Amino acid sequence: MTRKTRPLNLISKRPRLASPGLLLSLCAALWQLPAQAHVTLEQAEALVDTPYKAVLRVGHGCDGQATTALTVQIPAGFKGAKPMPKPGWTLSIRKEKLSEPYESHGRRISEDVVEIRWTAQSPESALPDAWYDEFVLRGGTPSTPGPLWFKVRQQCEHGEWNWAELPASGTLTRGLKAPAVLLMLKAKPDAEAPAPGHAH
Which of 66, 109, 110, 172 has its CA 20 to 30 A from that of 60? Predict the structure, then answer.
């Protein structure tokens, strides 16, 4: 009695196509790559009416040139801005009269910082295009939720980036070549809301 054998089922070795979901994820990741080259905040969200440490991340220079200065325009409503010194960089601040003074620790503040500038003291202190660094300032957030835009001017040995573009509406910066730096302010939870008439 002869035993019948089944023919082998040969499986095609054709490559499998990626799923639509995977393709969408890859496209989204690639779309976000240029945004990583922009000046960004380490913490892009904060609560209203609270102290906030703004860590501005600079990941490149200007077409290969080293960064020699960084100027930050302090948005209206951001109170008492103070920069953190950087070794090898000179700090300067500019103040202006406020249209709406505010109270801070029992004092009436009618003039406040509107601009902070770091300037490299020598070519050796400048930030090379291939390096990454952070520029830090601290202050108090406004009391109204919503977007707060920091405009940043990045100057290099030759050329500059003026990160000051704002979207026509909303907060989506996709398509902008040099968007301003966005801080999104959120309302405090009800439990943290100050009692009426109380100011810290």
Answer: 172
